[in-house]
């Protein structure tokens, strides 16, 4: 890492710094570190914009991940972990994308049929740059696929009434007893709940099949079905 003397630090406009010139400032700590980190915040913000617009991610989750990635970057620089690890922008992009993945996982309900939620976070220190690049692409593709799956499922669910969706949620997802669902939704008996829930499920399945037929991006709902 460049051992630039920061004792006589005077802030310049961010545009006058190259990325590698910001490294010793961040490593130095104090006001110099804060100013340098603010420069990177502005310089790399196109990544956050792309995550929101291109990858269709929630803006609040992206901004949280972006801030977390900058703090992680500063910690790694101050611990000397960035030396010899390539360009600063590429390293930050990798960190930011994994932070986005972490936030996405936290905001997604765990389903038995969604193994992506159970994957372990990678140990960066044990992976080569090539392995990190491959893993990054796989994780982003998994995020995009899960986002499309959820979007298409919402489209299918929109074919059901609010009451039908609530009954399915209570009976199949929350796994409430039929007697409890009957009391909650004013059904005559638990037996009626069971037969009605089956009919609602069939209605949803038909809506999904229709989407698979009519909307190409929703074919993933029917893969393996």
What can you tell me about this protein's structure?
Residues 1-9 and 108-127 have low confidence and may be disordered. It is built from nine helices and no strands. 65% of the residues lie in helices and 0% in strands. Helix 3 (45-53) runs antiparallel to helix 4 (59-78) and helix 6 packs across helix 9. The N and C termini lie far apart (54 Å).
Any low-confidence stretches, pLDDT <50, length ≥5?
A: 1-9, 108-127
Shape descriptor reads elongated
- What is the distance, rounded to the nearest whole angstrom, between the alpha carbons of the first and last residues? 54 Å
Report mean pLDDT, rounded to a whole number.
Answer: 77
The helix content, as a percent range, equals: 55-70%
Record field, number of beta strands: 0
Alpha plus pi helix count: 9
From the alpha carbons, calculate the radius of gyration and give it in angstroms.
24 Å
Please provide the ordered H/E string of secondary-structure elements: HHHHHHHHH
Domain count: 2
User: Could you say which structural class the secondary elements and strand pairing correspond to?
Assistant: mainly alpha
Question: Strand fraction band?
Answer: under 5%
Largest sheet: none
